[in-house]
Every structure is written in structure tokens, then in C-alpha cells.
Amino acid sequence: MEQILVNGLYLGAQYALIALGLTLIFSLMNVLNFAHGQMYVFGGFVTYTVVAQLGLPFIVGLLLSAVVLGVMGALIEKFLFRPVIARSKREESTMLLAAGIAFFLDAVILLLFGEKQRGIPKIVDGVFNWDFRIVIPYDRILIFVLAISAIVAFIMYMQYSKTGRAMRALAQDRVAAELMGVDVKYYSMIGFALGAMLAGLVGGLLVSITGINLGMGGPASIKAFMMIMIGGAGVISGAIAGGFILGMMESVGLTLLAVYGDITYLVIFVMLMIFLSIRPQGLMGKPWG
Amino acid sequence: MNTKKWLLTLVFLLIVLVGVPWAINASGRWDFYYTLTSVALLSIASAGVWLTFYIGRINIGQGAYTLIGGYASAILVTQLGVNFWLTLPLAGLACAIISVFIGLPILRLRGVYFAMVTLVLTEVARLTALALPITNGAKGIVSIPLPAELSLFGLTIIPDFATLENPKLAFYIAAVIMMVLCYAALYRIVNSRLGHLCRSLQQNEELSASIGVNTAYLRVIAYSISSFMGGVAGASFVSISQSIYPSTFQVVDSVNFMLNCFLGGLGYVLGPMLGTLMLYFGWDLLFTMGKYQLLIYSSLIILLIVLLPNGILSLPLFNKRGGGPK
Amino acid sequence: MRRRILLKSVAAGLLSLGLFSSAAMAANETLKIGFVGVTSGPAASWGISNQRSMETRAAWINETGGFKIGDKTYDIEIVAFDDQKDPKRAIAGMEKMAQEGIHYVVGPNVDDGAAAVRPVAEQNGIMYFPYAFPQSLYTAPASNAVLGMVANYQSGPAIYKYLKAEKGVKKVAFIAANESDPLSQRDGGVKAAKDLGLEVVSDSVTYQVDTTDFMPVLLPVLRTRPDLLVLSGVSPANAPQLIRSAREAGYEGIISTETAQDAQVLKEGAGKLANGFISVGGASTPEMASDMMREFVERYTKMFGEYNDESNTKVYALEYILETIKADPAGITDVEVFKKTMDTFEVANPYMNGDAKMKYVGTSSFGQKRQVAVPLVVNVYEDGEFKTLFVAEVD
Amino acid sequence: MSTILEVKNLTRRFGGLVAVNSVNFTVNEGEILSIIGPNGAGKSTLFKLISSFLKTSGGEVIFKGEKISNLSPHVVARKGIVRTFQETTIFRSMTTRENIIVAHHLRAKASLSGYFWGSAKARRDEALFADSADEIITFLGMEPIADELASNLPQGNLRALGIAIGLATKPEILLLDEPFAGMNHDETMHMVDLVRNVQKERGVTIMLVEHDMPAVMKISDRIVVINFGEKIAEGTPAEIRNNEKVIEAYLGSEDDAIGI
After folding, report:
1. Superfamily assignment of C24-148+291-374 in CATH?
2. Is the pTM of this model over 0.95?
3. I need a labelling partner for C184 at 20 to 30 A (CA). Which of A168, B25, C105, D26 fits?
4. pLDDT value of residue C18
């Protein structure tokens, strides 16, 4: 049982970090970023290149992933999303743009980094083993701690910095924020960059544990969508909760339902659909986003 | 419809039923038959997605219904020996009925919430197909016979495809006819009072209810029509590939159906048809680009959406006569 | 509806563009061989290693003056189509091949695609070499598909038998992704293990291919304390993660799979933890590789930057196609001749040391010769490279 | 004059908060009844309860002797109680005429499939709706904007369009939610005339929620005053003007932009 909880927590931390970036972008611009998973994969490959190919320390790779993705996010917002949002009649049109960007990143990743699964050497060797009740490798503990610190840092930033406050105002009510003198364009761009940066950071963190390959992007986006749906779209606490809940659901579900074999995920997904039908706004969301 | 529209429809029919086969014959590009058949069938499924857009719902779950339709037809043909042509409406009907049960709870959701639930729905359909015995699980259903003869009172209406010299052409003709019927129905829906009602849902559900529209009922109706189209398209595909697997239609397909609608234009009945043609045919034509295929393809999509965020049909070229969306 | 007319003229324009864009200039005549498979998305690795080994070999042949069939010499051109692992696209790809006048195609890489292209291939007289295992593809009345590798229901029993005899394995557990190919392979593996009298302690656990943490997936399996953990149909992307998680969770038994893997990927993804991992490979282990195989690896590496060990099994299909046509040049356009040649075809295997032969097999599995005889080389991973564990033949 | 609508002990709680607390009053056929009260008094909630957009926590609404509370909104509309909205809610991407035509839904005789196939009934419906829409457009003087997209209309026209949509349903009771909000004096007076016309010439009973006191005093036959979810007064405009409780309620509230 302890093992299941530990697994759930570890999974939850990485999920929550992915969901945070997605929900930030959604809350600021009402854009469902289909390319989020690809950004995460891109971040992973940046860290891989820095660490495995250039032989630099892990932390350098991690920072570089964050920076590269941050810049990429800012550019994507400024040159692609902004003009489209300004001119489209229905805001869902951004979904096509996001999907196009996802395809594009897939192609770029394939050409730049190749088709193979990649990974970097273990950062820390060894396994923590408490009498076989809890077995967890040290590197996972490290990644878990890093992920939690990133989440805490993000919350602090949103709560106490000027930029963070402006972005929260923007997320609450775009029009009101504009009237209050918040530079909507500027903070949308910063927000998108921050969201992309988080995606890059997760990619960098996870490349040391699970490795990375070009196919992980699409499914990662879909999983992240599910998390923010569980928690409530556009709500930061919701994304964190959603991440941990999905992590726990998988951990517990996989253990309990293992005997039923092939239907484990079917059950998880059906439960999710039923949950959302009963509580459409998720755990903490505002109704109708 | 006025005379001019009838005439244009006639011209369109002549082009797709006579002109295209002639052009293919003349150029020798026989492979385009399959490509165009696919476009026709996929645009039927996309038309369904478009209809759900029309009532204000983003539907990323059409892949589930194409899969269900495909399996329904495959099971009826292989296990009960039903004529394929009869399984087409039956597959559509099966999807429509299932969609009522799924739609009743989930159609209460809006915006991205509905979109996400439908996205999960596609995966649920795939996993269900993997788990059920009747779908033959992971091994799929293979060696499905070609469409058999359909006759009424001894009169052959559709010949047995297995005896045809060129089943490609036959599939093409069948697909195009289905597509035309589907879009005729869609056109009729949009340009009758039904279309007004759907648009009233899209624009303001509360007001719609307060003027007495049974919004829940109308939503379910629209959704089941949409699913019917998905089912028919899925069943037709299976008759071409003569096999179906849980992965025959997946999340990617659901997303593509949605993208087809966006690309063509959400405000135009023919939007999904044009979108499907561009996206599917585009990929096919770019096949000579080798490893840069996906790069060029995605760049073109991005370029298109940045230049024409309201779809290709929003080009002034297509709207000379003014009059807004038709 | 005027827009349709415009549309058609645009389409017609594009059409004519497509017509003129594929002209190759060469002194020799060109023989086109097709490839339809997945070279983008999650499973890209399968198709890309496939396509690249074909391209490497083709470039090599062309560089050395071409391939002689009958009294003519041909340059080999590989025409590749990315089906995105979508059976609908695979059909389109096969149509493209027919359009290009191609009669021999390698691929598709997965079950659903291979089943979907069958009608097109048969209508257009195309022989195709899928990497998919469903027996219905190769058993009469189907006759145009040739299995391009060793099937899991052939390699599985061999591996289990070996491990049972040599390592005293008694209890086996299976784990598979919840997709068609892996699940079918799992079912085949379970049957084979039971036939051998092994105890199957777990065969119901599945995972999503996008899983990022395999700990929760593996725990229920490991709790059954198997001596052998079989990763059925595991993709190269998932294999290192599964191995690593299993080892870190304290599992000490043997881990094996019946699919081909890449040593570099295992090294990066699991490091030392992958030592002892058993997989099926081709003929590039140092003990077996001929000079030609070594040169192939060298050329591949030079052309694409990095070799992929998955190509060890994928180098064969093109070689088989060309050699079989050579045996009866009429086969170049007539697949019926090709099929007849297959029954008696036999030449030396250039990629392996010793007296291994290239010939068609499969009579016992399919009732007809519809499989290439590649050596069943079972490898074990040891510190960054594969070592040959044993070699078997499939009949 | 007979009673057309009766509100009995109507109550609605949101969590611990009681938004409407055991409110009783009746509406007579053909009158204009205004509901007033300080901000947050529960007026809009009351409207939503009557039109069934909210479920009640207690009490009931009786229309012509039949209980209608807690039915679906469209069923209530079908019975003849139609609500326009506080926000200027209309179908934004339709023209004025299309808005009005759609709103005829309650009078549709043909079935959905009838509309699809263009049955005789459907064609009769469509012709009828078009005529009726023209009539309403003339009645409200909206000819110049008949074919304008609603999203391009100025505020004042949108309110009129809201009423036009209401009229198209041929309601017995029309609930108007703040019909004068955000209008200047001239516009308000024009609107008052318009609403009066609707009542007189079409015989529609009208209930309205409004802040603009001069307009309310001018237009209403009777007034119900709500404060903190409870009814504190009921009577003719003259009676309300002199009611101690009412004056107290309004003076005690922050929002004193009232014209008593």
C-alpha cells in the first residue's frame, strides 16, 4: 500500500508540472495548447543533447531546456497565436493552429534529434529500500523533490511577483484587466513563454528517468488535458490537484485492476467521463471555463 | 433552392462522377481513386463533426463512431451474413442510438470540457474494441468480403463488387454519391428552420430555451445525426480495407476530422468537404518530399490558419455575392 | 457552389504537378522497390530503421555499378511512403506503389496496416513483405504477403525452451502494451509457454504506450515472482524503461522479448540494469556478422549518422526481393513468376558467416512458403552491445 | 381582472445564503407589475425561479391554477411565460429579422423532420413566421435595422430586439429583466411607450425588474418591493412612494441612485 502511494505521489508531481503550464496558457488566452506535449518532448531533447552529447552537467541542460522553450513559447505567441486570435471569428480556431504547431514540432524533432528513444545516464545510482515496503530509486526521489520545488516556485511567483499578479488579473477577467491598465499583449506573451518553459522543464527532468522519444508528445498533451479537466480548466490549484489525482488513480487503479487485465485503462477513462458528466467544471473550476 | 443552385449542383455531379473518372483515365493516375474515395468518406465523418460545431460543441470524438460503425458493419457482414449495403444504414443507426446514450449526459458540457470528454471517448472506443470478444479483440476482423450484390425484385441495383473489373471506380462512385447525399442533407438542415434552431443553440442556449426550444432534445438529435454520419463513413472504409482493427480509427482521426472543419471554415456547409480535400490530398501529394513531408505539411497548415483564421471559404473570392455564411 | 469548380481546377493543377515530379535520371535502368511504413510519430523508429536499411543497401548497389538481373543492370530506387501507422494511409501508400509501377514493397510495420493493404496488393499484383504476424496474411487464399522476419510464435518457443533447459525457468509472466500487435504477440507467447509446460503466473497486465512511469504497472506482475518476464511486442522506446523499473523494483529474474532492440537505446535508457536482457536480433553480433554485414553497418552509419540495431533484421527483405528476381528475371514485372521461384529459391546468406542460406520458409506455420528465412539469432545485452546467445532456424 | 400567476412561499437558498425567502404575491391578467429593490435583493433570482431557470428550494409558482415551478425552462416558455435577459442577450450572428423568426418557435406546428423535408405544415409555418416577424418589426418600428446583424446594433436597439423576441413567442406573461438599464432619458421614455403599447395592444401581462425609479413609477400598475430576499411592500406606485419601509430600505442601502 505504501508503495502505491509513493508511486502515485511521484507520478502526480510530474503530471502536475505538465498540467500547470497547460492550464496557465488556457487561463490567459483560452487556448487549448495541443502542442504542449511536443514542447515537453523538445525540452527533453535539449537536455539530452546538452548532457549526453556535449557532456555538460544535468543542471545546465535543465536550465537550457527552460530557456529554449521559454523563447520558443514567446515567439509562438507573438507571431502565431496573437494574429490568429485577433482575426478569427470563433476562438476555437486556435485549436487548429495549436495542432499545426504540434505537427510542426513533431517534424522538427524528428529531423533534429532522430527517431530513437533517448536517455541520459542516471544522475544518482542506488535504490532506497525500506524492507521492500517502499522501494524507490534515489534519482526518482531527486526528480520528485525538483518537481515539487518547481511547483512551489511557480506558485510563489504567481502569488507575489508583479508579473504573476498581473497574469492572475488577466486570467480572472481579460477586459477588466485591460481597463485597469494591464498590458494584455505583453503578459499574454510572458504567460505563454512561462507555460512553454514549464513544459521544457518537465521534459528535462524526465529525460533522466524515463528518457524521451518523439512519439511521447501527443499522448502527453492528452494526459495533460485530462488532468486539467479533473481539476478544472484554467485554475492553477486545479491543475495541481488534477495531476496528483490522475497519478494516484493510475497507481491505485493499475494495482487494483491488474487482475482484470486489459480493461484497466478503460475503467479509468470511463470513470473520468462519468465524473465530468456529473461535475462538468471539474473539482475547482468555474462553470463553463 | 433556385435554378442556379440546381444547375451548379448538376455541374458538380458531372465533374465528380464523369469528369474525374475521365481525368484519371486520361492521366493514368489510378491511385487517385482511392485518395478521392477516402476524401469523400472522411468528409462525411467531418460533416458530422461540423454539425456538432454548428450547435456550438467542439467534437473530438468522431473517431469513436467511425470505429463503432466499422465494427457494426464488419460483424453484421461476417457473422450474420447481412448484405453490406444494408449494414451501412444499420451501422449508422447503431452509432446514432449509442450516441444518444452517451450524448445525454455529456452534451450538458460546453466548450473545452465537452471537447475533452469526446477526446477521451475515442480512446474508450478503442479500448472497448480491444476488450470485447465480439470484436475479436486485438486480432481484429479480417478477410471481410467485398460488398455483395444488392437487388430488389430480381433487379440488380448495385452489382457484386467482387465480380467487377474495377472495384476502385465502384467504390469511388459509391463514396461520392454518399457524400453528395450527406451534404445535401446537411445543406437542407442548415438552410431550413432546423439550421436557425441549431444556430440559436450555438449562440445562446439560455435564450434558446426561454423562447421554448427544447435544447437538450435538439442537441441530442444533432449529435446523433453527426454520429450517424460517422458510422456510415466508418462502415464504408471497412469495406475497402476488408479488415478492421481497434486502431483503424484513433484519436488522431478524431482530431483530423475536427481540423478538416476548421480548415474549410466553420461557417460554411462545404467547409468540411474542402478541408478534408486539402488536408488529406495535401499529405498525399507531398509524399514526394520524403522526410520533409511532415515539415512542409505542417508549415502549410500554420500558414493557412495564420492567413485565413476563419477557414479557406472565408476568402473574399468565395463570398462575392455577400450574404454571409450559407 | 461555384467554388467547387475552382477547387477542381486547383486539384487538377496539383495533379499535373505530381505527375512530373518523379523522374529519375540514371545511366542504368531503374528498378523501383517500395516501402510503406511508419516513419513519423510514436512508432517512427520501426519504419525509419527499415527505410534507411533499404536506402543504404540501394545506394551501395548503385555506387558499385548497379544490380544485374538477367542481361540488364539496374539502379535500385527506393520509393518510400509514410503511412503514419494509419491503415487508411497504408492503403493510399500501396496505391501509390501500384501507380509507380512497383511490384515489390516492404512493409507495413503493423498488423492493421498489413491487413488493410491486402486487397490493394492483390488487385494490383504487388508482393509485399510486412513485419506483422497475423497468420491469415500468409495462409491461403492470401498469397501476396511474405513475412519479413521471424514471428514471435516461432521465436518465443525457441527462447522459452532454451531458458527452461539452460536456466531452469519455471514461472513466466507476460506484460504487453494495450495495442493490437503486442496483445496478439502476448497471446501467442502465453500459448507457447503453456505448451512447453511452463507455469504462466501473470498474463493480464497491460500498459498504455505513453506510460511515463512503469513502477505501478510492473508491481502486480513482479509480485507473482516469475523467473522470466516477457515483454511482449515491446517497442524500443518502452523496453529500457520497463527493464529499468523492473530492476529498480528488485526483480532479479530474466527479462526477454521477441522483438528487435537497439543496444544504444538500451544503454542510454537503462544502463547496466539492461545487462542480461534477451532479445531477437539479426546478424550483426561480432561472432556472426560477415564482412558484408560489417560494411553495411559502416555505410548505414556514414549515411545517417548512427546505426540502429533494429536494422539487423530489416536488411533482409530487400536482399530477398532482388535475389529472387535475379533467379528468374521474368519476375521483375510478374509476381506469379516470383511466387513460383520462391518455392525453390536458395542462395547463400551474404550477411552471415558460415553456410547460412537465404530461402523461403513457413510451410509449417502457413502451409506455404511465405516467410523469409532469416536466422533466428537470440541476443543478450551486455554492457552496451549484444552477444549471441544461440541461433536457431525456422522452417 | 383575474389572477394569472401566483407566487406562494417561494424560497431559494444558495448554500447557507437565502436569496429569496418565502415570497408571496399575485399577478393580475393584463397588468404591468414591477419588482424593485436594492441591489442584491433577490429580484433576478425571483425571475429565474418564475421562469424555471433555477430550481426552487421551497414554495411554488402557479400559473392559471397549474404548478409550473421546477419544470424545464422550455416547458414553462411553452406554457406562455417568457423571459428576456438582464444582459442584452440575443442571437448575435443573426440579423434582426432572423432573431425574431427563430423566436417563433413556440408557434411551430411542424415537426423537426417536417422542416427537413419541407412538409406543407412546415412551409405554412415558415410563411406565417415571416409575416408575423414583419408585423412585429413594424409594430416596434425596427424596419431600418431589420436586416442588420444583431452584433452590429447599438444598445437601445438590442433592448427593443429583446422585446421583439419575447413578443414573437406570443407570451401570456413577458418577464423583462432591466429593460431600461444603461439608457438615457429619451431612450427610456421611448422604451416605456413601447412596453405600454405591448401591454395595451397585444394584451400581454408584463412583469419587470428595474432600477430606474422614474420609469418604474411611470409604467407600473402595481409594484412589489423586495429586500434581503423578502417582500416588504406591495401596491400602486403612489402607495409605494409613501411606504415607510420602502424608503428605509432604499436609504439604508449603499446604492442611493434612486429617484424617490
Report:
1. Response regulator (3.40.50.2300)
2. no
3. C105
4. 45
